[in-house]
Amino acid sequence: MEHKIIKSLFLLLVLLNLVSNCAHAAPQVPCFFIFGDSLADNGNNNNLVTAAKANYRPYGIDFPDGTTGRFTNGRTTVDMIGELLGFNQSIPPFATARGRDILVGVNYASGAAGIRDESGRQLGDRISLNKQLLNHAVTIHRLIQLLGTGNEAANYLNKCLFYVSLGSNDYLNNYFMPTYYTTSRMYTQDQYAKILIDQYSLQIRLLYLLGARKIALPGLGPIGSIPYSFSTLCRNNLSCVTNINNAVQPFNARLVSLVDELNRELTDARFIYLNTSGMSAGDPSMLARSDGQCIQDSTPCQNRNEYVFWDAIHPTEAVNRFTASRSYNASLPSDAYPTDISHLVN
């Protein structure tokens, strides 16, 4: 009996040692920088004057640190990509990142943010991509202070992963809101996609000039099929849903072409496209406000792992895990182009 107990304890120690070694293995990149909207926001909007914030229950009900400002029940896609990269802590939001915290990277994402500065303004304050890039310049200044010289900071940034995911709000909270915005009267869907990608191209090239060399660019999912679009923007009109889904296809096609162009021109950098549109589908899960977010202190369903949507806009942790996994290690050739994140970083 004693022999069996000792053997069991020994096996437990071996397992604990393996877990410990695994958890503390060096990440595949020294740092991870995230630019985005509410799909990636982890607290940057908490102190802004805006309806686009998630620092109340039931958001975060399944997250180890509780309610942090993440627009889901648990972890976001970028949280899980960070874990797959080997980070044993989540990347801090710019709003609270201090001191040496920034050495693992910074999350600049902001709910309601867009490629265009005006997108999402009807919801209140938000940090557009242009402002996120300005915040990144502040981080670089801090990195220079920590690492000693501009060259040291540049060499450090060259090795990091940059994840840039915006565009949904330029449609949902701009183009398809004619009451607040004139873009749908000024541009056809194809013209608008071109204008967005032209601006996005300049922003991504600026990020390159600021030291980014490994850049992942997710496309837009079928945003017409999210519960908010179906019930609020489209009033259950299926042709409207199809119209919104069709509108983002030229954006995605142009983004793939942009990836090709950037890889051709900036030969010391690598850019990839992630086909999030090919990774998604589903049904709504819980009560949401008219703007698509959770009603404060509402009671979520118990079988959250069986749902695609957490509120009327944002996916559940279960779907985020699925998206992160296929972004990191493509299940199908169509998941990522020309390669996935695991090959981008190695």
Task: Give structural notes.
- With 346 residues, the chain is an alpha/beta fold.
- 42% of the residues lie in helices and 6% in strands.
- It is built from 11 helices and 5 strands.
- The protein has helices at residues 2-23, 77-85, 129-147, 150-158, 168-175, 183-186, 189-209, 227-233, 238-265, 317-328, 341-345; strands spanning 32-36, 161-165, 214-218, 270-274, 336-337.
- The protein has a 5-stranded mixed β-sheet.
- Helix 2 (77-85) packs across helix 10, helix 3 crosses helix 4 and helix 7 runs parallel beside helix 9.
- The longest helix is centred in the last third of the chain and has 28 residues, at 238-265.
- The termini are far apart.
- GO terms for molecular function: hydrolase activity, acting on ester bonds.
- Pfam families: Lipase_GDSL (PF00657).
- Its main location: secreted.
